[in-house]
Amino acid sequence: MTAPASAPDRPSDNPGGGWLDRRFKLTERGSSVPQEVIAGITTFAAMAYIVAVNPAIMSAAGMDRGDLVIATALAAIFGSLMMGLTANLPLAVAPAMGSNIVFAYVMVKQMGIPWQAALAMVFVSGVIFLALSLSKVREKVAKEVPEVLKVGIQAAVGTLIVFIGLRGAGFIVANPSTYVAMGSLASPPVLLTLAGILITPILVARGIPGALILSIAAITLVGLFVPLKPDGTMVTSLPAAIFALPKWPHSTFLALDFGYLVSHFLVALPLLFYFLCGEFFSTLATLIGVTGAANLRKPDGSIPNATAAFSTDATATIVGPLLGTSVVTAFIESVTGVQAGGRTGLTSVVVALGFVLALFIWPVFVIIPPQATAPALVLVGIFMLQGLARIDLGDLANAVPVVLMLLVTVLSNNLINGMAIGTFAYILLCLALNRRAEVTPVVWGLGVVFVLFFVVTSRLM
């Protein structure tokens, strides 16, 4: 839905404008204060699930879940406010899905990296990204990383998200014969998860506002009456309170360990590359998509305040690990606010106020069970797979790297393995097909990094 254009300098068409009108250029962009407020509420409803899902995922790294709820909300408040006030774009910012999976399950659980050191790696990637955002280097990197590798990495993370969501809810379980199997449909928690997986996409497809957070809330409530164990324990435990004053995340605040990063630099290098590329390209795609939907692009197709938007994303990723969370990025769910009429940074400011409210009901987010978050994870993973539509899978130089990235990642439960094998396959196929020009210096560098990574890790194990 596109907001009707308004003639400039007509404050009478913008009730409640005044200073806000001048600060955010509301009339100039054909918007109004009520329109921006509605857009902000819509965006917040679409992405509020992150306050439940991010702590649920990152707590697997051994971090305190209550502190993670606060850190998640604070990071979203900072990032969304900065985006609204400096870039004046209707882009909401919060801890990124995908990066939190890599943080908790790949870095900490699989590779044994202390979560304090993992936070330091995210911080360093944010610093590097900020430097790239303030220079022209990011444009060169964007051109030299092939689309097939960008899409392959994103799709591999999406596949891993789906698998981890289903496994965490008990819908996928270990099996000595087949390695993995579906959980028993005689189990009430499995049935509850299945119901969520089937119903949640319907809510999203029908455009129900805040479909994911509604799904999480509904399953959490039903979980109060669904037995988890024969001893009477339910899927959802009652919270100690509904409302509580925000607490400071003492266990995660400034807990970064840079010493590990220095002593294990070659191990950290591929992970730094992942965070850097993941943050860079996801932000770029979100920025293009949201500004396009809002008709905010300039006549030459350029994005307004792009440097400020990239810098906000990078700065938020620096602040996020200081609070105790992973990469912070612009959310594609911002499109829902644009469809509701959001055209300026005031939309993002309203989103930040929504996360302020979440700080006062944090005890509720702590008790949300994995059965409630699994359907949201499945949907997020599916959204990340949609980029595959842009790849010509009839070309083996595209198909083989992408499929290997997906399969090796999910079957080895390790993103770095998938990225490495997919990159090696891309290089070799391009060379075999006399398409050497498609192997850019960045891709050659990435291949060298993965070779070094495997050499170092094989000696450590």
Order of the strands making up the biggest sheet: 1-4
The share of residues in helices is 55-70%
Strand content: under 5%
Number of helices, counting only DSSP H or I runs of 4 residues or more: 20
The helix-strand sequence is HHHHEHHHHEEHHHHHEHHHHHHH
Largest sheet: 2 strands, antiparallel
The end-to-end distance, rounded to whole angstroms, is 55 Å
Describe what you observe in this structure.
This protein is mainly α. The protein has one domain (11-241, 263-388). It has 20 helices and four strands. It has helices at 19-24, 33-47, 50-58, 65-87, 99-110, 115-133, 137-144, 147-168, 188-205, 211-222, 258-263, 265-293, 306-323, 334-339, 345-358, 362-366, 370-385, 396-412, 415-432, 441-460, and strands at 93-95, 172-175, 179-182, 328-330. It has a two-stranded antiparallel ribbon. Strands 2-3 form a two-stranded antiparallel sheet. Helix 3 (50-58) crosses helix 4 (65-87) and helix 19 (415-432) packs across helix 20. The protein is globular. Mean pLDDT is 84; it is low at 1-12.
